[in-house]
Structures are given as structure tokens and as C-alpha cells.
Amino acid sequence: MASILKRKRGGVEVLDTPKRAKSVKKENGNSTLKVDGKVDWEKAAEETSKMKELVKVNGENLTNGDAVTAVSEQPQNKNVQKKKNTKGLDAPETDAGKSIEKPSLWKLSESIAGRMSSLEPVFTADEKHLLVTTRTAVLVYTAANSLLTRSIKLHLAESEPNTRIVSFSLSPTAPEIVWVACSDGNVYRVNWMTGEGASYSWKTSSTGCNFMTVAAMESLGRRRDVVFTTEAKGDGWRVTANELTAPDDPIKTAARTIYTSKDRIRYLKTGAAGSVVVAAAGNKIIVGGLRTTEYGVVSNMKYEFRIFETSDTISSLDVKATPRPDGKDVKKSLKRTPIVDLVVGDVRGSIFLHNDLLANLMLAQDGKPGISLTPRKMHWHRQAVNAVKWSRDGNYIISGGNETVLVIWQLDTGSHQYLPHLSSTIQQIVVSPTGSSYAVQLADNSAMILSTAELTPTTNIAGIQASTIAGTQSLESEVERIGEEQWPSRLIQRTPALINPNFPSKLLLAVGQTQEIDPVNPLVTGSPYLQTFDLGTGHNASRQALSRSNVTIINSAPSAHKISEPRVTHMKISHDGKWLATVDEWTPPARDLTHLALDKNNAEEERLSRREIYLKFWEWSDEDNSWQLVSRIDAPHTLSQNSTHPGRVLDLAVDPNSSKFVTVGEDEIVCTWSTRTRKRDGVPVRGSKGQVLRNWYCQHAISLGKQEMAEDIGHIDASVAGAALAFSEDGSVLAAATSSQDGIVHFIEPNSGSIRQSQTGIFQGHLVKMDFLGQDLIVLADQLTLYDLVSNEIRMNFKLNIHLRELSIAQKQEMIHLAADLKSRTFAVSFPIRCKDLTVKKEKSLTYQQSELFIFHQDELQPQLHDILPIFITALLPAADSDGFLLLDTAAEIRTAHKKGSQILTAMAQSTSALLLDDSAEVNGVVVPTDEDEEMEDEDVQLLTPAATEDGNDDEDENDTPVVTAQQLAQVFDIGPAFALPPLEVMFYQVAGLFAGKPMVRDV
Amino acid sequence: MDIHRCRFVHYPPSTINALAFSQSKITDETKTAPPRLAVGRANGDIEIWNPLSGSWLQETIIRGGKDRSIDGLVWTQDPNEEIQGETLIGKSRLFSCGYTTTVTEWDLERGVPKRHASGNHGEIWCLAAQPPLLGPAKEGEWAGQHLIAGCTDGALVLYSTQDDDLQLQKILIRPSSKKAKIISVTFKDRNIVVAGCSDSMIRIFDIRNGALLRSMSLGAGPAGGPKEIIVWTVKTLRDGTIVSGDSTGELRIWSGETYTLKQRIKSHRQDVLSLATSADGSTVITGGMDRRTVVYKQVGKGKSRWAEVSHRRYHKHDVKSMATFESKGMSVVVSGGPDAAPNVLPLSQFGLENQRALPYIPQDSIIQSSSKRRLMMSWWDREILIWRLGKFPKANANSEDEEEDPSRTRKLVAKILLKGESNITSASLSRDGTLLAVATVDDVKLFQLRNKKTEDGLRVSKIEVPSTVSSGARLIQFSPNGKWLCIVRPDSRILAARVVQEEGSFVLHRKLSKLRRIDREAPKIVLLGGLGRYDRTVSKIAFSTDSNVLVVSDLAGYMDSFVLSGEEDLSLDTPDVDEFGSASDSSDSESSSEDEEEIVIAPHKLIFGQQWLRNPSASSIPKLPSAPTIISFRPDSSAKNGHVNRVSPHPTRNNPHPISRALPTSATTPDRLFIMTACSSVFEFNVLSGSLTPWSRRNPSSILPEDFRRNRDHARGCFWNVTSEQARIWLYGVGWLWMFDLNVDFPLPNEATSTALVNGSKSKEIAETPNKKRKHKGGNEISTGAGSAIANGNLELGISRKIQKVAEGGKKQIREDIDINASPFDEMDLDTDAEGPTALERLRRGSSAGEARASGAKASWRTYKYRPILGVVVLGEEEGEAGLEVAIVERPIWEVELPPRYYGDQEWEKDGL
């Protein structure tokens, strides 16, 4: 380090010498837990609790989400406000000192699933595994069975929110190593076979990093990985070549800035062992050639760059560099220059193909006549070419974009081949090392491997398709396109989600085709699909349409506007898992109705009258494993009591004991929906198997509104925008309230449909949500109120922070979540907060929104859990078969919150390596203890120890019959319910692997 | 000025079937005739265009006739000869075929077929010329270019062009029983012919013995389509490689040595119809039925492979024909099809310069008007239509009640269909609207137009014309007073005929005045070779407003002027039958003796005491830099009576009928002639004194507005609006309308910044020009023959003109800019400041110049609102109340009924309009 420092002081070129640093997060004993992502609840609890403290500290320092104006109306709470206002809710504290010391009784689990980053997936050298990344983790999937083999979570520094992986790339020298670059400028060297290296990083730059690529470069007989990174520098951007070595390596870590640019460098590729570097910045292409290979160390490398402009902003590029064949007509000066074939896709859909670019540029620059630099222009795509790649032999290029069509261009004949109707926008395409398959990553959080010959998928990886916030400004925004409908206020739509009570590991989500939400101008996104996600396997189980959708057709109108899809706003499942009720709504775009309207107000009226709002009842069909539509109620509610226009359904509730659903709409009428035998001419209609078919009808319609409201005919009353319903635990009481009636909650006897009691003064302001917890009714409006029905008193009352109260009603309804868990007698609420330390400019973006989560016990004022999540919660629901809650966030990750010590029965998806199916891979992975830099390390940091001995698997020395414990077997078989198990074949091999002694595979 | 904007003239532009350049490649060394482009159309017209280093002037139209079409055009160049140390450049000869069994050679000087040749074979589908012999000819070998014709019955016929003749030499291939049509034919070298057939075959023949060397099969057609592939077009590259375009939409590349398929490129969705290659063989361009024009270049290692570089839809319909032309400073490919507009695409600068569509509207206006009677005449093919245009409804006169139906403001009052086969070459309507003269290539007809008593229409009656007149004309025009009819014969002899009014009807005087142009004798060696006398073809006629001066101009830029001498005396008419007869005889016999030197004008033939004499100062009008596109006399504002000052000679005893020999003078007759040439130079001459007018001296072409000079479309016509305050000339081209006030001087460029400028035109651009060597920049007017250079920001090429090189030198990064896509003009001397305004102009202006502008009169004004302008005519100027009244006739292409397309891809463009 000293030498580096010296160079740092003396040298001019070495700007940010990467420092080997441990990640900021401290290690505690169980390093293996993190390494392989194995979940051991007990230990994870300690882990996370420590982590949480850290978060808390951060929370105090960084986030000042001061939601807290404590209003405690409980007489027994004589607490002093001592804690800093860090929370969205003020939790009254019993004792100041204690409350700080008191550890949370609950904890958050590590996340599973998650949004795949739009980075090129990586094939391993043997093509048996495919590596993709989420925001913070590298996931290793087995190509043969699409199963998650290993999830390597990087130990990111939490100093900056939204730190994420920006690039990763397989090391060309060591096939088991992946280089991973994060947006904070740290570069990790991860062994994907073992998961090592997730906690060590080199800080290459203090300004972050936005792209990275790796080349194996040879000089003076030494071959090494050179990591090229691009990062901001002053008012420009630069490209740096780094050689990152371990601290004990005799060769020092070295770096050199090889190029600086005024424009943001978006892509970086190398070819011919680093002798060619191609980068794209805006509409500029930067081609660099290495001057000499005799540079010795990286800091002496010299490149020569040539820059030219193309017609439009570049959205993708690929380079193919092949050594120049020896020929007589080859000029001496070009002998060493490889043939660089470059293909560039731009945001308007053109693909340009430059043959032998570098040599031609050199010749043209020398003024040699007759050199045609004009590239071939290939135009098929209408919008941005998100991905373009050379085939291995250079005879084809493969491209994809928003058209959801994979295009294969045969260069010699000019013919195209298409693979149309992929499920979503193509984001990345990768050609496997042997060229036998393509990996295609789609925008709906899925990736697949296609065989080159038949173009059939061999591997399919699909994650949760709930909406996520787009990480970076998309390149599409460079092109002016016709604007789509936006939310008036910036918000993130809630994702309707529920757990199937019959299959507690199945999470049902209403999802859309486009998931990435622009953080600045969020569009109104439709969500016409029902995705069934298996929590046990971490896999997409099924997907079906709940309303009309545009998946296989051109989804733009002749006017180039996107055709909007209906949005599923509410979704509930009956207690027996047999019935599913959904509400979807669709409003025609304003631009289609302007010709009908007399004036602006009238236009809105015309729009409202043409809304399509449906209540649909679906029945589970075991035969084809899907939900079958039974009844569709068109416009279950009207705009107001005297209107005939369809009105929104504001809430949907399900009777916990019988097949009964309840809705409340804008007309302030509560409808109870019940099922009855379907009859034709008095004879029950029977299905194909002789079962009696049923349909749904409105049993009671109970008006909550005052009668004088009826006078405002056609008047759009904005105050009715909020309404909520809740069934008591036994289904005997239905609570209903609307915002228009300030503070009144009606208690309805659902069977008779009569209002039994109306209680006033329970809430104020916009009503967001209600739920029952035992005899307590939780009402979330401008306060969080716990109202005891039996004693008829308000047991808790928390006032929401002023920032929350100032949100618009739509923002509140979409972004504030409430869930009650009956088993643990707890309820959870989450609020949006935003990081306060960020600049005002950034605050406008949803990217910097965070979520604050509270879990309260019914009887305690002190929250069981209070945490600030770095990302945004879009769904909060009680876990079905155990205590605790499930959280879905904008990174499409799922976490559980549960009581320490309790174990959620629903096994969350784990990688196969975490199940220790092939454990000896870890066993053999002896990590050399490493020395830390004096300046960086903490004294109490523990060195990495040989991993994974706690499972009793330290049988590596025994060469005879292996001992197979019951626990090991359990881990093969008890990973989930029967339907969620991996294929039988896989399980067989897993069991066989246990008994077969030394596993034959080192490559997992 | 009132403007009627009309679109009811449904002029039918005709499909381009064939395009041919007289040479496809001219290097600095080659001695050859000036290049011309021949455009063959489906209505039988052949247009001769002069590339004029990018100005593209339509010089002449050889009119076709009924049921004739031009399907193939071929130029040949006879070999050069050395005569007495001078090179006699070989003749450029134009041949055509038109789905008959005949090959026609055209006489460009007269615009008529020169000779035909046919044989006992099927209809000729395609025609190709043998490549010229390079190097010395062997003994007894004809170094010229023979023609090969492919026929629909499968015959391949060789026509000899030897000894300035056209003869069937031999039938190489007899029609076979299979009757595979020969669709395309080309020469690989002087002896090997490549023929693309309709039966999926390309056959190679040796013309020396007619042997079939090889046949190359294209295989079966695609599934679902016809089995046999039609080879629509085939060409060979310089290295012998054969390229073909076929009905599957593929370009195929065949080895010229082994005659095997090397590569096939699918780039069209429909048939490839046309194909062009660059002379060096590095670029291939195809056009197809899918409207695409595709450019291919050689790529890859060793440049052995071809690849599509880009494609685009330049045409609105099929791309039927293509031709390339490369010379110093020019490199273009011209394509054409049913949308009738030739499209010029840059070849070497492809992607760096814009393409340009040439107008489909003929250069010479086909619209005339009789302003007095508010008649408007238009003509095409064998058809003449006359409309009467109503007046503008008065805005204040009860517009609500009596609002006139707009369709009633015009009425078709006469429609004349000519008998006979040949198309009209020219027509003229006298100013008072009573007479109509129509010329075809072999006839001149005269019609009298009378109002019908009851209806709106016109009664058209034919007037017999003397047989001497009726032998065809190239151009025909009435004088403004309607007394004279100027007739230009196909061979460019000029006649003037007197119109005599007799009891309400008109006849032509039997005596004809022959007007002889100054014999600007070129050396014989020039006249015998190249294009011969073609450039002396008379293209424009102009009468002075009092009809006393007549000016004709030819394609070379020479002007000839004639004056009417003497005083009109109707009593002097001495119709002498004998004299007339002898005159008619001599007119025929004289054509042979025309070359004789004749300084004194032959026996005076007075007609009513008047005769046409050559203007004494005609020779002092210099040759113009290029062919004039507009010649027009400036009318005089102070309506002078030309006769006032002329004193009739008194009859004396010796001369009872004294004849005035007085010539009109500048004082009596308005003689200021406004001229605009094809290279946008503007002059004004005093014709009678043979000098430039003061305005023209003060305003040389170089200080015309920048926007005007950068205009690439030629001026097609003009009209005047002269009052005592202003002398406005309105010029129009296909897409523009410019006004110049000749009473006002143009601002000098360096004054431009200080004075308020012409109509807000970009003063910066003008300000940059003075006295500096103009640098070549993007968007400048210099190009390789097509449109202007594309600005750097708009390049869609995928690579910029400049690259930047960044290298590390020491501690700093050194950046340097390098031009890679350099324009060929960078090396050329762009010293254009020679014509820049000099102190001389400033001196000539004196102090008066500033005053005129101070009065607020604009020197110029423009609009691009009307397009494409078929013609602008003046109406009802006689009334003179609200100033000028004009009708602008437009003919947009989307209103033209194009033939239906086989392939309706992306048709929404049409629906949108």
C-alpha cells in the first residue's frame, strides 16, 4: 500500500489506485451464511439484528424520515420523547432508555427472488451454468434444469442507497472467477463455484463506476486480467485500465486512465485480448488500439483512440476482433492490427456494421484514397436496438429490441430470420462460448437460453414480474416519442398480491407486461396478468390473463400510441382457495375522446362514462391448473348513486369463513356478492363432470351514503375516492367506511345486509385501509387507529407524519400498506419516506424513495419491528401458514418479516447450493486468510475461516462410505410442497450424490 | 396581384421506361462528345437532358406518337478518327426499341427518326451496345459498337452500326421451340453476350459464332410462386463478374471466369427490375418493384463478398430503369419509373449528399393563356384543352347570396384532338384568343376560335394553311399583336408567316419570310462528330411587346435577333402566284445550299410593305455561358406607341409605293431582353444596340440573392408586372416563384448586413461570401451532380465525415481531427470570387442606387408555396384595375393516377394525403 501511496503522490496518471478494502459491513462469525446465502433462521437473526442496528445508525444519520409527531392517547404511556424522529410513525415508548436498548422482537429475512439487472447474462465456459445478477447478488443458474444453484450476495457498503451491480464479466483467465463492478466503484472478484469473494472489493474509483469489462492481456510473458472501468471524472468521463491483485501478490495493483471524454461512456468492449477497446458515448464511437504489448505493467499501457460519430445515440454494440491472416497484400503497418468488425445499434432502430474498422480508419487517416468507411446499414427495428451481437463465426448478427422479436441477420445473403412473440422487450442477448445457444434476457424479469439450431428454449428463468423502478434513465428517452398517460402525482402502484390458502407457498400477483417504471414520470401501467409465483422454488409457476392483454400483437395504435391495458386493482381469494375475485378497470385515453368533448371538463366526464370496470369471479380448476372465469359483473358500482356511469370499486373484502365477497364503490354502496347454483329453466346446469355450476350475484346492496348526496347528479365527488372494508375474523361483522363520511365506520351484519351500528370519530382525513385483528379494528387514515369493538374504545392512535398526510389520495392509496396477521396478533404498516440527505433534484425521482415498515403487536404500543427499507414496498401481506408477513418491493424481491425464533413454514426459495446438495464444493474451498490493509480494517474483523462445517459434513477425509444424515435427506426432500419440488430426476441425482461419496463435480 | 391556384389541368406524366447516358464514364483523358442523358417514356417521348455538371437541363423532347413507347435506349459512340492531326470525335448515336421488331436510330438535330432496321424475329424486348474497343483496332475490325437485341421469341439479333448505318447483321440465336423470352442482355466483353431469360436461365453467347458458351440456372422459384424466375436485369462489372436481378428479389453475383454463382443477396421484397454498376465495379445499385433502391458494396477480407449497404424508397412506384454517369466532378446514378420523375442519386458520395428528384413536368411550359379573353390553353400528346377562367368573385358584392360555385369559375370551353399519329411539339394561342396554332413534327395546323352564340363554349374551325407552312415545326409562336406567326422547323430553320384577317376569318399570307441566323460556322471536324449540330437547336423564341423584334436562342447559348423593317401598308399586298410558287420551290432547294455564305439578305419579299431583317447589331450579343431557359422582352411601362415616331415616306413619282426601310430603334421599340440561363446567370440586353442594359451592368449574376443562386430547379417561365413605379419580373420554376424588381438594384453583399435584407433571407450566408475564397462546407451548392451535401448533423451514414484521433504524447492527450469522407471538391479550386461584386459595380451604381432602396421597394421576393408548378399564366391584364391577375397551375404527383402497384407495402403514405 505504501508504494501505491507513493505513486499516488508522485504520479500524475494514477488517479484512483484501487484499494483493496473490505466491504464496510462487518463480518461476524458466520461468514458462510452470507457466502452461500444459506438461510439458517436462528443465525440469520443475529446477523440481521446487527445489520439492522447499522441500518438504524444510518437511518439516523442519513435518513431523517421524521414522520414522528407522537400522539399518544393512552393513559398508561407516560413516555418521554427521546428517540430521534426517524420513523414514519411515532411509536410511543415506555421507557426511553429501554426502548433504545430493547432489541426488536421481529426481524426481516434476506430477500429472495429480485429483479434481474439489465446486464448481459454470463455463460460459464462449459455452458452448464448461466449467471445473472439482481441488484445486489449474482445468481448462478444451472442450464440443464433452470434451477438456482447459488446466490452470491455481495456485501455492499450501505453508505449510499441504490448501490447496485453495474457490470459483471467472466474472467478470461480463470473460468471460475467473475468480476463484478458496483455503482459505488467497488469491484469484486467472485468465485461463482464457491461463492467466495463476495466480501472483498477493490475501490477503483471514488466517483462510482458505470461500466466494466475484463480482458486477459499478455505482456512480457505474463497474462493477467485487466479490468477496464468507466467512471465520472470531474466534468467528464474516463476509461481506466486496472490490474487488481490480491494484497499478498508480489505484483502491485495498478491502474491507468487510458481515455477521457466529455460524454458519458455507456458501453465498453474489448477484443483481441485487450488490444482493441471499443466504447460508446452518446452518438460517438471510440475505437482504441493498443500501441505495444511490451508495456510490462498496466500503468505503462498506451492506447491510441479514434473517435467518430454515428447518426444517433448508440444503444448497443458488439465487437469481434480476429487476428489478421498473413497474406501478401497485407500492409506492413497493418500486420499487427487485428480485424475489428463492429456492429452498432442505435435508439432509432438502425444497425450499422463496420468491417475491419480499425485498419480502415488508420488508412483513411493517412489519406489513402479508395477506402470506403461507409458502414452497412440494416434497418428492421422500429425502436431502439437493445441488444446486438455477433455470432461466433461472424456470419450472423443477432439483435433484439422493443418489438419482442429476436432477429437473426444472415450477413452474406441479406436474409433475416425472426423469432417473434417473445413475452416482452428483449434487453440482452448473449451468445454462448461455443455458439450453440443464445441467452436472451427479457424485460419481464425472465431470461431464457435458446438453442441456436432450433431456436427453442432449453432453460427458462422467470422471476417476479411485479413492477420495479427503472434503475437508470433509459436510452429510449433520447428519442422523442409520443407520450403516454402518466399519474398526476408521482407514485408507485401497489401490486395486488395474495397467498393461496391451499398452497401457502404460492403467491398470486397481478402483473403487467411492462414492469420498469420510470422514476421521474411514472406512467399508468396496466396489469392484466395473474402471475403465480412459487415461493418455495423461487420460480414462476404460471401466468394467465385476467383481462384483455396485448401480448402477441403489435401493441401500438396507428397513431403510435401504446394501447393501454386494464389494470387489476383488487384481488381477493376465498378462504378455501376455490374462488378468486378480481376487479379491473380501464379508462380510455383522453386523447381518444377529445373529439367528443365540448370542453375540458366535459372531456373528463366523457372519459369517466367510458370507463370499463369489471368484477370477475374465477374458480380454480384442477384439471388445467388455472383460474376459470365464472361470472363477470360489468360496472358493479356506479359513479354516484344516481349515475349510470361505471364507478370505481374502492375496496374488495372476502368473508374469512364463507364464499362471500364484498365490494364498496364510488357510489358509497356496499355490495355483498354470493354464489348460487346456476340454473337454466329451473334445472341446475352441470359441467362436463357432472358438477353443478355456480354463478355469482349481488346479495345485498347497502347504501352508506346520506340521501342528500343524491342531489349532485353527475357531479364527480372527489371525496368519495377513499373507502375501505374489513371482515372480522369470524366473518360476523363487516366494517365499512368511506372518506366522505368523516370518521364514521359502519358495522354491517353481512348475512342480513343491515347496518348494525355506526361509530363516529374513528378516523380523520383520507381513509386508506381497514382491517380486523381480533376484536380490534385497525383503521389507517390520517391516523393509525386501533378501535376495540368490544370495549368500544380507541386503544391506540398514532398520527401520521405531516409529509404523509400531505400526499394525494391516490398516492396514499397506492403507497401505504396495511396487513394484519391473525396468528401472531400483529399488524404491519409501511409508509413511503424519502432520503433527506439527497439533493433536491434527485428527490423528484422515485428512485430515492424508501419504505418504512412497522410491525405492531395488538396489545403493545411499542412496535415489534421498525425498519427502513432501502427500496420501496409495493405489497404487504400476511404469510399464509405461519406468523409473519411477506413484503414485495420495487426490486421484485420478497422478504419475510417474522418473529425471531419462529420459523416460517413456507420455505423460501433457496439455491440448490444452499441446500447443500453438493456441499463438498464448499468444503474444499479453503480460503486463504488474507491480510488487511492497516488503514482500512477493523481490529475485530474475523478472517475468513474454512466454511461449512456446521452441518456435520466435514467428512472430506473419509474415503469410505459417506455418512448421510437425515438432515441432508430432509434438505433434498423437504424443500417445499410436492408440487414445488424439482424434477424427480434432479432429486434422484441429489440423493445419489449424497450416497456416492465424493461428488464428482467441482463445477457444481 | 390576384392569384388563381388551380390543379384541374390533369397533365399525365408518362412512365420512364428507359434511361441511358451517352457515356457512362468520362475520364480526363478520353476525348469524347459532351455527355447527354436520354430518357425514354411510355408515351414515346425521348427527352435529352444535359447534366451540365449537376444542373440537369432538359434540352429537347423528341416527341413520340400514338401507340408508341420507348422501352429501350442505347447510345453508341463511333470510334474517333485522326484527320490531319486533329481528332474527329466519333458520333454519338441514339438507338431505341419499343416492343416492336424495329430498332430506330434517332436524328437528334431534327428530333425525328433517322433510320429503322428490323428483321424476321419477334418483338425486341431489350437492347445493348457492344463495349467500345480499347486499344488499336485490328485490320478489318470495326472499332465501333454493334447492337444486340433480345427478343420475346428467344432470338438474339446482332445489328451493325458500321459506316453510319444500321443493319441487321445476323441472328445469333434462332428462336427455340421453348420460347424463353430474352428479358435482359448485356455484353461481358466485346464478344461475349450475357442474356437473362424468362426461364430461370442466364445464357452466355459468343457473338462471333453464335455459340452458347454456358447457361447458368437460377433454380426453381420460391415455394408458392411461379416456378420460373425471370432475370429482369443483368450487368457485368469491369472484372467480368456478372450481376443479375430477378423476380425473386435477389441480387446474384456470378463469377465471370467460371460462370458459377458466387453469392446471392436477398434485399428486395419484390422483383428487382433495374440494376446499375459503378464504372470501377465497386458499387452495385438495384431498384425494384417494392420501390426500394438498394446500394451494395464489396466488403470483407479480400473484397470478394458483396453486402447491402443501405436501402431506401426514393420513388413512389416501381424503379424500372437506372443508369450511371461518372466524370470529373460528377458521379451519379439516375433512376426512373412510373412516377415519371428521374431521381438522381449520388454514387461516389452516396450518403453524404442528398438525392434529387428531377421534375416530371417538361421544361417548356405547356400552358398558355389569352389574357384578353381569359382563356387558358394546355396541351399534351395529341390533345389541346382550353378553359375559360372566371373572375374572382368580388369580396364585397353580396358574397353570401351570390357566392359562385368555385367550379363555375372555370369551364372547359374547347377540346381539340389532332388527327394523325404524331404528338404535338408546340402550340400557341394568340393573345386575343382568336387563333390557335399547333405544330407536330410533320404538320402545322391553325384554328380559329369563335365564341358560340348560345353556350359558353368555343367554336373551333380549322384554317387552311399553305403547304409550305404545313411541313412540321419544332416551335411555333404568335407575335403579341397576332400578326406574325414564328415557326421553327425541326431542323431549326426559322420562318415568319403573316396572319391576314379577311372578313372575320384569318388566313396565312402565302409569302413566308425566311429568317437566317448568323452563320457561326464551327469547324467541320466538330460538326461531323460528337453530337454534330445538335447544340444549335433553337429552343426559345421571344417577340418584343410591339412585335417588331424577334429573338431566338439555341442550346449552345447563341442569340439571333431579327427586326421588322418598314411600315405596315395593307395596300401593298401583291399576291403573286408565281413568286409564291418559286419561293416555295426555293425553300426546298435552299436547304441544300444553306451552307453557302450569304451576307446580303436574299431578294426582298415585302409583305404589306414590311419584312424581317436580321438585326444589324445581332452579332454584338455574345454567346451566353449556357443555354438560356428564359428569354423575354421587358414591356415598357409608358405604353409607347411604336408608330408615333415613324414617318411614312411620301410617295414619289419614281416610287409610287415607297417602302420604308426604317428599322425600329431603341427609342421606338422596347428592346430590353431579359435572359436567364441554365446556370442561373441573368442578363438584360438592349437588343437593338447589342449592349447590356444599365440594370444588368449594375447587377451581375454574382450578386443575385444567395437563395436564388442555390436553387437547383431551372426557371421555366416568367411574367411581367410593369408599371411606372416598378418593373417586376416574376420567374417560376417547378417549386419556386421569385420576383425581381428591375427598377431596384440588389443589395451588394457587403451592404447586406447593414441594410434590411431581401425578405429576411439569410443575411449571414451572404455576408460570408464577399471577396473571400468560399470554402466548401456542408450544405454548399457544390456536389457531384445530385443534391447538395448533407449537413454533418443529418448524416445517416453511421459514420461522420471527421474522425478524431487521440493519442498519448507525454502527459497530455493529443487530439487531432481528420477528414475521412473527404469530398472530391476539396482539392478543386473553388475560386468563385472572380464573379464577386467588384468596385466596378459599385461605381456603376453611383449614388442613385441607395435612393431606390430608400423608397422602400424590394429588389426581390420569393415563395416556395406552390409546387410543382406546371405553369403560370396571366389573365385579364387588360382591365388593369387590381393589377395583375395570374393563374398558377399545379400538378402534384399524388393526384396523378399512377398504374396500380403489384406490391402494396407501406401504402399508408398515400392515404395520408
From TrEMBL, chain A:
Keyword Nucleus attached: yes
WD repeat boundaries on the chain: 378-419, 642-683
Gene Ontology molecular-function annotations: RNA binding
Pfam families xref list: Beta-prop_WDR75_1st
One Gene Ontology term from the biological process aspect of the record: positive regulation of transcription by RNA polymerase I
Subcellular location: Nucleus, Nucleolus
Chief location of this protein within or outside the cell: nucleus
InterPro entries to which the protein is assigned, alphabetical: Quinoprot_gluc/sorb_DH_b-prop, WD40/YVTN_repeat-like_dom_sf, WD40_repeat_dom_sf, WD40_rpt, WDR75
Keyword field: Nucleus, Repeat, Ribosome biogenesis, rRNA processing, Transcription, WD repeat
Domain of life: Eukaryota
Any GO CC annotation of this UniProt entry: small-subunit processome
Region described as Disordered: spans on this chain: 70-97
PANTHER family in alphabetical order: WD REPEAT-CONTAINING PROTEIN 75
Protein name in UniProt: WD40 repeat-like protein
Species for this entry: Glarea lozoyensis (strain ATCC 20868 / MF5171)
UniProtKB/TrEMBL annotation, chain B:
InterPro entries for the chain: UTP4, WD40/YVTN_repeat-like_dom_sf, WD40_repeat_dom_sf, WD40_rpt
WD repeat placement: 265-297
Family annotation (Gene3D superfamilies): YVTN repeat-like/Quinoprotein amine dehydrogenase (2.130.10.10)
Keyword Zinc-finger: no
Keyword terms: WD repeat
Stretches for region Disordered: 573-596, 761-785
Superkingdom, natural source: Eukaryota
Basic and acidic residues composition-biased segments: 762-771
Biological processes annotated in GO: maturation of SSU-rRNA from tricistronic rRNA transcript (SSU-rRNA, 5.8S rRNA, LSU-rRNA)
Residues spanning the signal sequence: none
Segments of skewed composition (Acidic residues): 587-596
Keyword Signal belongs to the record: no
GO molecular function annotation: RNA binding
Name the UniProt record assigns to this protein: WD40 repeat-like protein
Organism in which the protein naturally occurs: Glarea lozoyensis (strain ATCC 20868 / MF5171)
